[in-house]
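FIELD: query
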Amino acid sequence: MRPVVFLSDFGLDDAFVGTCHAVLKRIAPGLDVIDLTHGIAPQQVLEGALALHDAAPYLPADAIVLAVVDPGVGSKRRAIAVRGADRRFYIGPDNGLLLLAAERAGPLFDVRELTDPRYRLDPAAATFHGRDVFAPAAAHLAAGVALAELGPSLDPSLLVRVEVPVPVVAPGLLRAVVVAVDRYGNLQLAAGVGDLVAAGFAPGTQVVVEPGGVAPTPPDAAGAAGAAGAANAPGPAQATVCRTFADVDPGALLVHEDSSGRLAVAVAGGSAARHLGLAAGAAVVLARPRG
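FIELD: result
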């Protein structure tokens, strides 16, 4: 039986995750369920999509991915199951959550809308499709039901896709959006090491971190989009571009490449989110010190 990998924004304070587990195992006894995370920030589809994308190379080759970050639950948004070029199944809402991972290895192999009443709970609540629609579909696939049985085929070009923010890079300046904050308070940015290089920030460089995009913007970057910063955020702080936390003193701010290959702003032994007063969706500017 194929394993199910489960990601959601349900958290662990309520019975949502456990109820989905119960539905999965009632339909497919003996099913192996891997809880990837249930700590995605509420309604943060992009954060969930990036987490799935980053985890995809490490999942079982035959995994059925059940992903639920679904602020549009009960609306006209479609419930879908897709088979990626990696031959895994991905099940969840049609809001872009699945596709960064499902298309990582190439174009989608097959897409189905989850409409067949045989493979959902009856009645299906308007606000808990994780339990009533997505978990049953995942369990039935694991038990051997063919993907084509779950519903009609969909054109992949009609599916919703998330937009990953694009960094603004100029000599001496890098502006990027925080796409996730982990439990340590590290700020993961929508930027990579290549963007640091393009900005001229080599390892060991001291940079000023400007919350909210308040640093001067070069003429060629004027007007670029960036998320708003947190209200009442502290002023600029100095950070070191380095490889890991141990390269700076405890409590110092650093910029490094995290395990996903993205840039992150962190505090050695502390929380960059708390230090800078920032959350997911905020803009961060790295700039050369003035003077």
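FIELD: remark
Residues 214-232 have pLDDT under 50 and may be disordered.
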